[in-house]
Structure formats: structure tokens, C-alpha cells
Give the backbone structure.
Amino acid sequence: MAKRRLLKPALFVCDLQEKFRPAIWEYPKMSVCSLAPPLPKSSYSHQPFSIATTQKMIKASQILNFPIYATTQMRSRLGETCAELGLDDPQGVKTACHVDKTAFSMWVPEIESALSSSGGPHEAVVVGIESHICVTQTTLDLLAHGYKVYVLADGVSSCNKEEVPIALRRLQREGAVVTTSEGFLFECMGDAGIAEFKAISALVKDTKESTTNAMQTLCKI
């Protein structure tokens, strides 16, 4: 019987907030999505890569049934999580934990408590901003607490694009797996015989153009 390779992943959505829109490099391509109703294929292809990556991963979390943990950084100043993500909206996706923080890392007491009460994931998948600050410190803390961490290169960004490859190289040296959203999804499945393969394959197909655009953009850094 076919089995998934990664049985207990969780998605960590770091500080994708309204007031970052004009400041973050390729922010729209990384972050914003809506799951209700699903976008047609043509709509995915017109999304910048940051938007499409988080959209893809939130949709994948519903297909593969893994939890989402989300944070905002000083919400009163920097705004709510982008409304298009639909996190904890009545028509959207319920998170396991969605909290505001002043710490740069997502490893705050509320997140730690939610992870502990659920038995915790084995793998943590990180998207968000900024690559060299909150994403880096979140990843370092998750590694320190024993998680296998995947940082999605097409799902993170910074104000200065030059920070992104430097941060990713550092995190790779620290022990994180730096990969792409598509690479992670196929590693998570591990076998074309699992029940979710058809739905994930359709999602990958529908987001093929945006994924290609993301890779081409990353290669220009």
C-alpha cells in the first residue's frame, strides 16, 4: 500500500501583512491567495510568484491535511495578515494558531503551546518575510527544537532582494532544507499511489506557469 513520505508536516506563514506590500521585493508573487472560490488555471498564471506560492501551499495543506501556523509582526503598526489569504476567515482556512508578536521569530509561547498540544509536526515548512530576519530566526528556532525545516525559496522575500540568497545560503548551512514549493510537495507525497496524488498533481499543473515565473525571477538575483 502506497504511503506518504512526510506524514506530519506543518506550514508556517510568517508575517505576510498588508503594510509590507509596497516594501517587499516581489511581495505579491509570494503571499496572497484566496481559496474560496478556487482560482481557474488562467488566474494562477497571472499572479506574481510570491502570491502564487503561498496560495499553492495553503491549498496543498487542505489536500494533504496539514496544519497552518501564522503570525503577524506588531499588527497595530503593520496591519493584519493579508486578507486575500483568508486565514481564519469564515470562507477561508482555519489555522492551528494565528498570533501577533514583537519577537522576530515565530517561536513564541502561543505557537510553542499549540505545537505541544497537537503533538507537534515532524517537518516545518516556512514561507514569509523577511528572509534574513523573521524567516531566519524562525528557522533557527525550529531547528534548535528538533524539527526538520524546509524553507521554500519561492515563498520567502525581503525588502532588499540581495538579502534573499544570502539568507538561504546561511539557513542551508545551519541545517535547513532549502527547496521549492513544488519540490516539497512531491517529497511530501513520495508515491504516486497515494490518494492525494491526483489533486496535488492538478494543483501543480494549474500553477505551472507561476512556478516557472518564480524560478526565473529567483535565478536573476
